[in-house]
Design brief:
770 residues, mainly beta, Immunoglobulin-like, Maltoporin, Chain A, 2 domains, 5-stranded mixed beta sheet, 6 helices, 41 strands, globular, CarboxyPept-like_regulatory
Length: 770
């Protein structure tokens, strides 16, 4: 008996000793991604059967299960609407880290509604998205003004109605805008040519601040803006959105309505439609009205889609139409008048308010059609095809005599065809994923006869072909990505000058590449870096402009000997997301050879239509660098504050001076107070903010007038969200811009020579979701 007891005690002692000596401080780490698009999955559930413990993936898809001993474990990964994964793991060291990709499956959620958000593109460079409440507050503004809510993004404007986004000092043909996945192609080369897009189509607007030429082509060297509508429904679930916006300045009115639903009979079939209209009159500076600054818009878009487990097909169409008045005082009669208004700094007359739009003006319409499809060749391979067609019509009218006043001075039509064909490779359990693709762009630009003047730019045909490959490695907190692309572009131009036919045949070729990485240092700290080369061939207007650009009220002179721009941009971003604090800091450096810029000369051009300043396209080596920052802090559960700003420097390294039209330093900060009980899901928030803009001290050697002084604007906003019944929501917004009706001039406004910017504006915004 004593022998048996001794044996049992010996066995128990050996087992205890073994358990004590075993390493039980091990962890299972991993990353959960969508198989469909390689996006991270937040809130996936990971369960370890043997230890009866688990974890939930964070917003980057990362998870960790701690305090495990050496041994074999059965791992189960689940996420609603996706096929679960079971894996067997032999854990012996603390270096285990694995990537899992979940495949979507069709499930019935009954009455459950899932709310979520993910960025429109996954990249290792700096990405910021405008969605949800921030997008709601921007409704009624044009695309450029909406994006000013993002640090590092400003606008290059011509008056108060025409603005285009600027990312890290780059704009126009250096910024690519994608409307529902199709690169927006209009006459974007003009400083006063605003993007032909209605922001009401967007459910999310994403800004990529790095060079993205490998993914999208040469025009993405300065950054990319993605304007994405809401996903097309795949089942019957009707949703309607009505927006009403009014503004006191310009007595502006804006209405938009959208509706989306899915089929009850055909599983996976859905549609959505949207339409908007906008009307505004003369803008008012604090002390006077600006003559002929009204606008009108009429827009429509619609899409139809079908999705199954293997196949997805989508058709999309959008129509944008606008008429824009150009400030009358920007077109002066003679040289003395031009010098006098520049010296005066404001118009000599006050025309009062009117909705009438007369010459000079722009009339622009844009059609965009898209057909997109994807097919799952296997669990790992997906084939994607996309075709886009665009027709852009632009007419610019000048102040002219007699019958000529009814004819446009610039009449352009541009037709663009784009084709994208690419293959995605995503494995369920591999850390590697990639894309290989080709795309083509064909354009034909024509000047419509009958204007009575020599065309500013020639007729041209352009063909661009590109082939690229991108590979990405994702494992736990680490992501590494690299890509390579080759483009070839041919441009053929022709026009008559003084009855002589002038032609040119041009060819451009170039490689571009990038490498980047992202590392989640801790659950709250993420660092990403991206180094990329980029290039851009000179645009036709930069090469061949030779005359009066009526909408810009300027004479522009091109240079047919310009070379392609080539750049090397390095972007680094550090993000901290704590319980009460959120902070993002982005630092970048961009070295550009053969940078092309429009420079004011000390000359004027006098004609029967007036006196105009002369600008010329020049080329020099450039170095751009700067910092963007944004942050917020919760002082209490009700009171919060935010600050965001940007600093940019742009140096002409050849002549050791500065470029024109580079944004000055700026910061926007504010406080927000949330009324009502903390548990309420109904927004009731008051925000007071202050925009501080410094004077641009880094001016070129010559400008028509010195840079204007810095300014400070105070703004007030109130947002109220009310639930109407179980399914309907009413959002009410009141905004007061420039509360104290401050007179100021923005350096990035090309009409700052002639007028102040907009005065006080009170906006009422109503959104009803049902």
């Amino acid at each position: 008996m004593k022998f048996i007891q001794a044996a049992i005690l010996s066995i128990l002692f050996l087992q205890a000793s073994s358990a004590f000596s075993q390493n039980c401080n091990l962890a299972i780490r991993g990353k959960i991604l969508h198989l469909e698009n390689n996006d991270p999955i937040e809130a996936a559930y990971i369960w370890v059967v043997e230890s009866a413990s688990g974890a939930v993936s964070d917003e980057n898809g990362n998870f960790v299960v701690k305090d495990l001993c050496e041994g074999t474990y059965a791992l189960t990964i689940q996420y609603l609407g996706h096929k679960g994964i079971k894996d067997t793991i032999k854990l012996s060291t603390n270096n285990f880290n694995k990537t899992y990709r979940l495949e979507e499956e069709s499930v019935s959620l009954g009455g459950v509604e899932i709310h979520g958000h993910k960025l429109a593109v996954q990249t290792t460079t700096s990405v910021t998205a405008l969605y949800g409440e921030a997008l709601l507050e921007s409704r009624g503004e044009n695309l450029g003004e909406s994006l000013k809510r993002i640090s590092g993004v400003t606008t290059f404007s011509t008056g108060n109605s025409i603005s285009k986004p600027v990312i890290h000092g780059m704009h126009s043909n250096r910024i690519m805008i994608l409307n529902n996945g199709i690169r927006l192609e209009g006459q974007q080369w003009g400083a006063e040519h605003a993007p032909e897009i209605d922001p009401f189509v967007a459910n999310e607007i994403t800004v990529i601040k790095g060079a993205e030429t490998v993914r999208y082509g040469p025009e993405a060297m300065g950054g990319v803006i993605l304007v994405n509508p809401a996903p097309i429904p795949t089942k019957k679930d009707p949703k309607t959105n009505l927006y009403l916006t009014t503004g006191t300045n310009g007595r502006m009115g804006n209405v938009s309505i959208s509706h989306a639903n899915g089929s009850d009979k055909i599983k996976g079939l859905g549609y959505q439609v949207q339409a908007s209209a906008k009307r505004g009159g003369n803008i008012k500076s604090p002390d006077y009205f600006q003559g002929n600054t009204g606008l009108s818009e009429l827009n429509f878009s619609g899409s139809l889609g079908y999705s199954s487990s293997k196949l997805g097909v989508e058709g999309y169409y959008s129509y944008f139409n606008t008429s824009l008045g150009i400030l009358r005082d920007s077109h002066t009669g003679n040289l003395d008048d031009l010098l006098a208004i520049i010296e005066n700094g404001r118009p000599f007359s006050d025309p009062g308010f009117t909705y009438e739009i007369i010459n000079p003006k722009q009339v622009v319409s844009h059609h965009l059609a898209k057909l997109k499809s994807h097919y799952h060749l296997s669990d790992q391979w997906k084939l994607n095809f996309q075709y886009g067609f665009q027709a852009n019509y632009r007419q610019e009218f000048d102040k002219r005599r007699g019958d000529l006043n009814e004819k446009p001075s610039l009449d352009l039509e541009l037709f663009t065809n784009t084709i994208d064909l690419f293959v995605d490779q995503h494995s369920l359990k591999s850390e590697w994923s990639g894309t290989i693709g080709i795309n083509g762009i064909q354009q034909a630009n024509s000047n419509i006869p009958g204007t009575g003047v020599t065309p500013l730019i020639p007729n041209y045909d352009m063909l661009n072909l590109g082939v690229y490959a991108i590979e990405k490695y994702s494992k736990g907190p680490l992501e590494i990505e690299g890509g390579l692309r080759f483009d070839t572009r041919s441009v053929n131009t022709a026009r008559f000058v003084d009855s002589q036919l002038e032609t040119a045949d041009l060819m451009y070729n170039n490689f571009s590449a990038f490498i980047g990485g992202l590392y989640q240092i801790s659950p709250s700290v993420t660092f990403n870096t991206n180094l990329g080369t980029a290039w851009r061939p000179p645009n036709v207007n930069e090469l061949f402009s030779q005359g009066l650009h009526h909408g810009a009220a300027a004479v522009e002179i091109g240079d047919p000997d310009l070379n392609s721009e080539k750049s090397l941009k390095w972007v680094n971003e550090l993000e901290y997301d704590g319980s009460r604090t959120h902070l993002e800091i982005t630092a970048y450096a961009n070295n550009i050879s053969n940078y092309i810029y429009l420079n004011p000369t000390n000359e004027t051009y006098v004609s029967l239509r007036g006196t105009f300043n002369v600008y010329e396209y020049l080329q020099a080596n450039a170095f751009f660098y700067g910092v963007d920052f944004s942050g917020s802090y919760m002082f209490t559960t009700k009171l919060s504050g935010y600050a965001k700003g940007s600093i940019i420097r742009a140096k002409n390294t050849e002549e050791d001076n500065f470029f024109p039209f580079i944004p000055s330093d700026r910061m926007d900060w504010g406080l927000a107070y949330q009324f009502g009980p903390e548990t309420s899901d109904q927004t009731n928030k008051l925000t007071l903010s202050n925009m501080l803009v410094a004077r641009q001290k880094r001016e070129p050697d010559f400008d028509l007038a010195a840079a204007p002084p810095g300014y400070a604007l105070f703004n007030l906003g109130y947002q109220r969200k009310l639930k109407i019944g179980e399914d309907n929501t009413l959002n009410l917004g009141l905004q007061v811009q420039n509360i104290f009706n401050t007179s100021y001039k923005e350096y990035m406004n090309r009409f700052r020579y002639f007028t102040d910017d907009m005065g006080r504006n009170i906006l009422l915004k109503i959104n009803y979701q049902f």
